[in-house]
Amino acid sequence: MLYEMNRVFPRKVAFVGEPALRALIREAITECRRHRLSTFREAALIIALMFTLGHDCTADPLYPWIEQTLLDREFRDPAARAQRLEKSAETWLVQVAGERHEAALA
Q1: Between helices 40-53 and 78-105, what is the axis angle to 10°?
Q2: How deeply is 62 buried, as exposed, middle or buried, from its count of CB atoms within 10 A (0-12, 13-18, 19+)?
Q3: Sign of the dihedral defined by the CA atoms of residues 65, 71, 75, 77, in that order
Q4: % of the chain exceeding 70 in pLDDT
Q5: Domain assignment of residue 27, given as a range
Q6: Nearest to residue 25, comparing CAs of 3, 2, 41?
Q7: Residues 64, 45, 1, CA angle at the centre, nearest 5°?
Q8: Is residue 13 within 8 Å of 25, Cβ to Cβ?
Q9: Residue range 69-81: average pLDDT?
Q10: Around Cβ 68, how many Cβ atoms within 10 Å?
Q11: How confident is the model at residue 4 (pLDDT cuts 50, 70, 90)?
Q12: What's the structural domain count of the chain?
């Protein structure tokens, strides 16, 4: 994950530093356990969200869709919940990217 973080956001990784990123990864793994997410892909999703949106994004009112999805008991299967979270993250990213693209064109 550290390699991928550095590949995608090298300046952020350099600014934050490896010790803080390792702490973020540990925190993300704890969050995964709390929500019974156990695969590498599920952990990578939570790590990526925490890295890009902030370490407390799973309870941040700016991103209510994350917490709502993680706590949604409609999905008893953690894997299904993780899939929904991944889809919600993709939808959010497309929407944000579209808004920024439109603003840049204005």
Answers
A1: 40
A2: exposed
A3: positive
A4: 92
A5: 2-105
A6: 2
A7: 135
A8: no
A9: 91
A10: 12
A11: very high
A12: 1
**Token match 């929500």: residue?**
35
Three-state secondary structure of the chain? CHHHHHHHCHHHHHHHCHHHHHHHHHHHHHHHHHCCCCCHHHHHHHHHHHHHHCCCHHHCCCCHHHHHHHHCCCCCCHHHHHHHHHHHHHHHHHHHHHHHHHHHHC
Tally of residues, the chain = 106
Question: Is the per-residue pLDDT at 104 higher than 90?
Answer: no
Q: What's at 16, amino acid-wise? A: V
Tokens of 60: 């941040």
pLDDT tens digits along 7-59 = 999 999 999 999 999 999 999 999 999 999 999 999 999 999 999 999 999 99
